[in-house]
Specification:
By secondary structure, the protein is an alpha/beta fold. 40% of the residues lie in helices and 17% in strands. It contains ten helices and eight strands. Strands 3-8-7-4 form a four-stranded parallel β-sheet. Strands 1-2 form a two-stranded antiparallel ribbon. Strands 5-6 form a two-stranded antiparallel ribbon.
């Protein structure tokens, strides 16, 4: 099998999920070329806001999240969104769902390296779901695919524990925390048994955390013990800019 894999890699070299150049292996997953791995660093600085991943002195709640009702315990992200914007757009909006394996692998590897304590706490992996109308348009649920890959690589059980019970406008087109919060208010419902469980909630991008917060409310309402949020990217620069413009 190894020989066949090496032959296939020679004939069809794996491509970097960021720039498309030939990739190399990280824990047997071919995901990033050497240039991008060097130039696009993981978020390794632990002095981050626990709710949006923005740089924050001694890991305190940042000025934007301060005073907001956050139901999840902590949010962690692998990259800053501006560094991997093209990757997210290629995956999410251009039908390249095969990228879920590479992106999910990067997420799992990151969590194992920097947050093994959180992984050991979590008993269930659950994605932030998209509405059925959005699924019909896109053909796949990007967070579901990521969640399944992370589940496989971490050994944490996967479950579609949430459904989106009403269609909402794209959060990416809405500026400001209060408007984003209103857009997704009451949009999710827990449909699986989560009582007493610590849940790892998966999404592709975290901006203000409004969707994650509403999902967390639904999970806690059904008896979940606590919820951690895990995303591929954090768009805290955009969320802070939006909030500054709405003060």
């Amino acid at each position: 099998m190894k020989l066949i894999e090496e032959i296939l890699d020679f004939l069809y070299p794996p491509r970097c999920i960021v720039c498309g150049d030939i990739a190399f292996k990280i824990n047997n997953d071919k995901v990033l070329c050497r240039k991008c791995r060097k130039c696009i660093p993981w978020i390794e600085d632990m002095s981050r806001c626990p709710y949006c991943s923005a740089p924050s002195e001694k890991g305190r709640v940042c000025s934007v999240c301060k005073g907001k009702e956050k139901m999840y315990k902590k949010a962690i992200s692998v990259f800053e969104y501006s560094d991997v914007k093209n990757t997210v757009e290629n995956y999410k909006f251009k039908g390249n769902k095969y990228l879920s394996v590479s992106i999910g692998s990067v997420m799992a590897d990151y969590a194992k390296k920097f947050y093994p304590d959180i992984l050991s706490e979590c008993e269930l992996i659950c994605p932030v779901p998209i509405h059925s109308t959005r699924f019909a348009e896109r053909g796949f649920d990007q967070s579901e695919l990521l969640g399944r890959v992370i589940s496989e690589k971490s050994g944490i059980k996967y479950a579609d524990a949430l459904v989106r019970i009403r269609a909402t406008g794209p959060q990416s087109l809405i500026k400001g925390y209060s408007l984003r919060e209103a857009n997704v208010k009451g949009a999710f419902k827990a449909v699986k048994d989560v009582k007493g469980k610590t849940v790892l909630l998966i999404d592709d991008v975290l901006t203000t955390g409004s969707s994650a917060n509403e999902c967390t409310k639904a999970l806690l309402a059904e008896g979940a013990k606590e919820v951690y949020v895990f995303t591929f990217a954090a768009s805290y620069k955009q969320s802070h800019k939006s909030e500054d413009g709405n003060r």
